[in-house]
Each structure stands twice: as C-alpha cells, then as structure tokens.
Design brief:
about 525 residues, Rossmann fold, 2 domains, 6-stranded parallel beta sheet, Cobyric acid synthase, cobalamin biosynthesis, CobQ_N, Class_I_gatase-like, CobQ/CobB/MinD/ParA_Nub-bd_dom
Length: about 525
C-alpha cells in the first residue's frame, strides 16, 4: 500500500487527532510504514523532538502510534496562542515570531511551500502518510490561504474523509452543510464520512446516514461508538473543561485512601497533559478546577504550564486563587507547579518577551527570580530526583537567574533544576511524572505532607503502557467499526471525481419552485 489520506472535521475537537492515531496504529500493526502529518496546528500542548524542535503534542502521540520518535516534519507549523488575538508561530520546530489573526493570513502563502516540502519528504520516506486537518474543513472565509485542510488536499491530490462528533448533536446537517459549502473542486476530494462518539443503537442512525448518502453521493465509512476509556493527550482547550475529572473509568476501591488532586485550569494552560500521568494512577483522582474552595480542599494542587505567565498570574489574583495558594503553602499543603506555574510561584518575574510587562511580583512561595529570554529553551531532560531517574522535556522562555531554594531535580548535563521549599515544588520539566519511579516517590511524599494515611501508588502502573493501551484501543475501534477496505482503497487509489452536493440541492430547490 502506498499513498495518503486527510482526516478532516466538521468542527474542532470532532475526534480527528484520535482517529488519525487509531489509523496510524492499525496500519503500523499491519506492518505498513506510516507517518502522521498535521500541516498547521493551533495548540499550547506541545512536545520536544530529538533535534530540539517543537511540535504539537497530538502529533507526538501519533508518532508513537506509528512506532516513531517525534519529528518536526510531522507538524511543520504550530501556532501557540498567547492571547485571544495573537499567537507565537513555530515553523519546522523553531519560533519565528508572533502574529495576529489578520497578519497570519499573509504568512500562509509563504508557509504553503514549507508544508508542501515536508509532506513530500514524508511521502518519500514512508509508504503511507495520514494527514490531520485543522478545525473545520468548511472555513471558507480562510480557503484562499488554507494550508491544512482542502488547500492541502487539493495541492497534494489527497482524498478526504470528514469526521463529525455526533455526541454534540447536529451531525447529519454538519456533514451535508460542510460538504455543500465547498467549491466543486474541493467537494470532489471529499470521499466519505466518519461518525464519532455515537451512543445507542446504530440501526436507528442508519436511515439518516442513508439520506446523507443520497443527498451528497458519499458513504459513511463507519460509526465509532462513544468510549469512556479514551482520554489521553487532549489536543485543545475544549477537551479540558473545568469540573472535568481527568482519566478513564476508576477501578473499584481497594479500601485504601485515595489522593485528590486539583489541577488549576488556567485561561492559557499549556501542556495540560502533564496531569494525565497522575490520573493514570488507580488511587489518584484528578479534577480541573478554577475556584479557591477546591484549591483549599484538595490533597495536592497542581499549577500547570501556561503560554501567558504574567496575565494568568493576574487571573489567579483576581479569582482569589493566589490567596488560596498562599494560605495552602502556609499550612504545609503540597503544591506542584510546572513551567509557567513554577514561574508564578517565584518572587520576581521579569518579562520583556512574552507579555512585555517588564518586572512583575510573583506569589513569592519560592525565593527564586525568573527572567524571560528571547531564545526559547527547547531540550530533553535526562536526570534524577529522589535517587531515581527522571525523563522529560523543557519548553520555556523564562529562566531562573537567582535561587535561594533547594533544587528539586538534577539534569545529568545541565545540573540543578527546579526548586523546593517545604511542601511547595516547582520545575520547568514537563513529562517528569511519566517517569514511573519518580512519580510514585513524589506521590508518597505529597500524601505524607497532606496527612493522607493509607495511600500507596500502584507499583505495577506504567504510564507508557497506559498510553500504548490507549493507542491499541483506538486502533481496535477503527479496525472494528470503519470500512477499512474502503479506507485502504482511498489511500492506494487516491480521490475519485465525486458529484457536487450543491447540484443535488439545486435540483431539489428547482423542483420545489416549480411545484
């Protein structure tokens, strides 16, 4: 088999990332040399590649599904929102500037050549490339400069399957309307549909899907059932709402004390996937929160990373969360702060780069000063803490320039990292909690500091195994519920010339007018 396929969506968060991961995993298990590709991603969840570049976290997960290490080719353009209207632009793994929504339209024509080159490189090196679209393929106001959806599909002559999340409602109209608003040449590349997160009896849905086929000329290639067990590596903010418990179904209680974790849902949270390693633990309950009461009441509080340290710090103060964190630290309640969260807990923040706010007072829970540098730190972390190994990665502009605190971690190459004062822990290292021995040791200490008696992490729990099981589950779902022979045919044969939806609509409107 040789070729490519683009998985587009009717909306953001329709399930494109996990469908791509499932297809990649299923093909890799069959011995196909397959790679993922997302031309342009907008996400603050990112990962570091082996050469020190930066790509979207979802593409790193998809690479794992293929049995590959993260590669900047898998996501050549990454937008990291720092506010409602401006984003950092990462090209081929490196930050190249900051743009607003209007400015970015002018960038896209230049970026289209980079996207085309990276896709061509992957198609030379792999048998199959499974591409992921961005947002909705029906954003026709952006079509002229599109590099991720139908613009990519038409430039590379790739067939498109469209995913819709039926759990949100309106999917049949979404499928018809999404296809109908495209121009004829784009419509010709849309080969079929996938319905995601369906609950109930498929026979009830079948007549509706047949009507969609009659109106569009395109089949539904499968219906993926709603599955509680899928929860890792959320792509964007829609997937991590306040009040949502992180993780899949909890195992039955063993009678031992559980550890409750409150993860503060910052407005510009980044690398929120850090908390998923905690949620993998059978005895740990992790919930996203944004209120002071939850911060005061949890056994452990996690302050995650952010793409806007200074403005999210102001948000903490406005909502009373800063005061709750200070009170918590004063009574010895454990706090774990990562990257931007770590910077907020410091005494002094000097930021002329990210926010241009100059000097700002931090919460002062750690006697540390941070200054932002124009050059972003992008590197893998390989070190230890508690006499056990720690692996992770760093992505940050803020750098520690003074610390009176005990370092928490140590990198074998760069030396001390992070800081600790009593029950307050801070680090720039993402992914450290995926190191199983380190996570278990830290959780034991956090439980002790919180006065939780009877809690013990599962000695057999492996985050890597959980992630692999999630990928295999997604592969099993697509293999069982999608028309895989048709998917294989689309990949191998490319797009056929399919009818335009608007012609069907026009015929019926004309019939109605005459009547």
């Amino acid at each position: 088999m040789s070729g490519a396929l683009l998985v587009g969506g009717t909306t953001s968060d329709a399930g494109k990332s996990l469908i791509v991961a499932g297809l990649c995993r299923a093909l890799a298990r069959d011995g196909v040399r397959v790679a993922p590709f997302k031309a342009q991603n907008m996400s603050n969840n990112s990962a570091v590649t082996l050469d020190g570049g930066e790509i979207g976290r979802a593409q790193a997960l998809q690479a794992r599904a293929c049995g590959l290490e993260p590669d900047t080719r898998f996501n050549p353009v990454l937008l990291k929102p720092g506010g409602d209207r401006r984003s950092h632009v990462v090209v081929r793994g490196r930050t190249v500037g900051e743009v607003g929504a209007v400015d970015y339209q002018q960038w896209r024509s230049a970026l289209s050549g980079i996207v085309a080159d990276e896709l061509a490189s992957l198609r030379r090196d792999f048998d199959v490339v499974i591409c992921e679209g961005a947002g909705s393929i029906a954003e026709i106001n952006l079509r002229a400069t599109d590099i991720a959806n139908m613009g990519l599909a038409r430039a590379a002559n790739i067939p498109v399957v469209v995913v819709t999340d039926i759990d949100r409602g309106g999917s049949l109209a979404h499928l018809f309307g999404t296809t109908a608003v495209l121009d004829a040449d784009d419509q010709a590349l849309v080969a079929g549909y996938i319905v995601n997160k369906f609950r109930g009896d498929p026979s009830i849905l079948a007549p509706g899907l047949e009507m969609v086929r009659e109106r569009t000329g395109r089949p539904t290639l499968g219906v993926i059932p709603y599955t509680d067990g899928l929860w890792i590596d959320a792509e964007d903010s829609l997937a991590a709402p306040v009040g949502r418990r992180v993780g899949g179904p909890r195992p039955p209680s063993t009678g031992r004390r559980r550890l409750t974790v409150a993860a503060i849902r910052l407005p510009r949270v980044s690398n929120s996937t850090d908390v998923e390693a905690l949620a993998c633990e059978p005895g740990v309950d992790v919930t996203w929160v944004d209120d002071a009461t939850a911060v005061r009441g949890a056994d452990l509080v996690v302050l995650p990373g952010t793409r806007a340290t200074v403005s999210d710090l102001a948000w903490l103060r406005d909502r009373g969360l800063a005061e709750a964190l200070i009170e918590r630290a004063a009574r010895g309640g454990p706090i774990l702060a990562i990257c931007g969260g770590f910077q907020m807990l410091c005494r002094r923040i000097v930021d002329d780069v990210e926010s241009a706010a100059g000097e700002t007072a931090g919460l002062g829970l750690l006697d540390v000063d941070v200054e932002f540098a124009p050059e972003k730190t992008l590197r893998e972390f390989d070190g230890h803490a508690y006499d056990v190994p720690v692996r992770g990665y760093e992505i940050h502009h803020g750098r520690v320039v003074r610390s009176a605190e005990e370092p928490w971690l140590r990198d074998h190459r760069t030396g001390p990292e992070g800081a600790r004062r009593g029950a307050v822990f801070g680090t720039h290292c993402h992914g450290a909690l995926e190191s199983d021995a380190f996570r278990r040791t830290y959780l034991r200490e956090a439980a002790r500091l919180a006065g939780v008696v009877g809690f013990e992490p599962d000695p057999a729990m492996s985050v890597a195994d959980v992630r692999l099981a999630q990928l295999d589950l997604m592969a099993d779902l697509v293999t069982e519920h999608l028309d895989m022979p048709s998917i294989h045919g689309l990949i191998a044969d490319g797009p056929g010339r399919l009818p335009t939806v608007i012609s069907w609509l026009g015929d019926h409107l004309e019939t109605d007018r005459r009547a």
